[in-house]
Recover the amino acids of this structure.
């Protein structure tokens, strides 16, 4: 390890520690490898429907998940694979769900845009833009009312900041001082439209914070250390009764909006420029700065690739869900008979 004197001389902050940094790296590489495999499986026609990948945005999911307590709750968008994996769902469960197999998180019935794992605090992925922000407020209100100290964390894209539910949820959370953290993953594009073309302020989330009495927090979403530290502070504030936070994480998606999108609308060279700030590459270098050896990093990379390879083969061999569960999980009683 790099000793503290050398770390200080290099301007490095060692408040996070090696164990947590290795966790952050593992999470980012797991997300990267699993998302890349999802892309490959889609091209093989093995992923059912479309999918929305988080390639290039891994540091946000990793940083927040590493700062969460097990009882904290995550509310995700349709781009929710990363957050589901970061909270501990297995690669096999996630890929199985994307492939419509019985070993998926919801036995293949939900698919890419509805990943849910309540046992790990993943309270759903929501395909309707902004729909989950008021729901996250409801979960936070429950914690406040019951005296629990869990925090609800709601992830959304930059385009959501122009949806009414965003403003309603922020106002409600601020008035009631709810233990909820709103996280805007600003990847610069709301589907195919640059967010700056349709938004009156430069920071779509951060510049709206003051309207609800909140601090403007805009951070580098490609640096997992910065994300982790910011998340820690927001969670501590929420648990202490200090109310909500709104955090805008600046990032960039390496792929199109969805697998149907070749992203031809991006200016030439923009993607290549952002890849110079690839969060996985950045963090690999960060580990080296703190004295983690190339052999340790290579071992982690190889272990995760094997996990993804093994999960892929198990998913390919898994059967589709049986027809006898087609009507379960539709209504509250688990079936449809009472309505007929």
């Amino acid at each position: 390890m790099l000793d503290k004197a050398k770390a200080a001389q290099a301007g490095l902050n060692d408040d996070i520690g090696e164990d947590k940094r290795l966790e952050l790296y593992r999470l980012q590489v797991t997300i990267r490898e699993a998302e890349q495999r999802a892309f490959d499986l889609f091209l093989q026609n093995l992923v059912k429907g479309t999918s929305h990948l988080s390639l290039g945005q891994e540091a946000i999911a990793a940083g927040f998940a590493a700062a969460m307590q097990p009882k904290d709750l995550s509310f995700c968008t349709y781009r929710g694979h990363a957050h589901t994996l970061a909270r501990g769902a297995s690669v096999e469960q996630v890929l199985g769900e994307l492939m419509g197999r019985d070993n998926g998180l919801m036995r293949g019935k939900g698919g890419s845009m509805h990943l849910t794992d309540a046992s790990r605090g993943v309270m759903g992925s929501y395909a309707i833009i902004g729909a989950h922000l008021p729901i996250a407020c409801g979960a936070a209100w429950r914690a406040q009312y019951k005296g629990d100290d869990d925090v609800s964390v709601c992830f959304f894209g930059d385009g959501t900041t122009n949806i009414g539910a965003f403003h309603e949820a922020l106002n409600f959370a601020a008035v009631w001082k709810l233990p909820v953290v709103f996280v805007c993953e600003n990847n610069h594009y709301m589907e195919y439209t640059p967010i700056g073309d349709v938004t009156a302020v430069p920071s779509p989330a951060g510049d709206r914070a003051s309207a609800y009495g909140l601090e403007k927090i805009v951070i580098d979403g490609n640096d997992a250390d910065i994300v982790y530290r910011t998340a820690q502070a927001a969670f501590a504030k929420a648990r202490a009764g200090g109310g909500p936070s709104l955090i805008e994480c600046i990032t960039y998606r390496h792929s199109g909006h969805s697998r149907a999108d070749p992203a031809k609308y991006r200016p030439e060279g923009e993607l290549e420029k952002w890849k110079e700030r690839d969060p996985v590459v950045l963090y690999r270098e960060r580990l080296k700065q703190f004295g983690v050896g190339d052999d340790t990093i290579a071992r982690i990379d190889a272990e995760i690739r094997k996990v993804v390879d093994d999960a892929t083969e198990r998913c390919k061999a898994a059967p589709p869900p049986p027809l006898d569960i087609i009507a379960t999980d539709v209504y509250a009683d688990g079936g449809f008979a009472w309505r007929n």
In short: The mean pLDDT is 93. Residues 219 and 286 are 18 Å apart (CA to CA). The first strand starts at residue 73 and ends at 77.
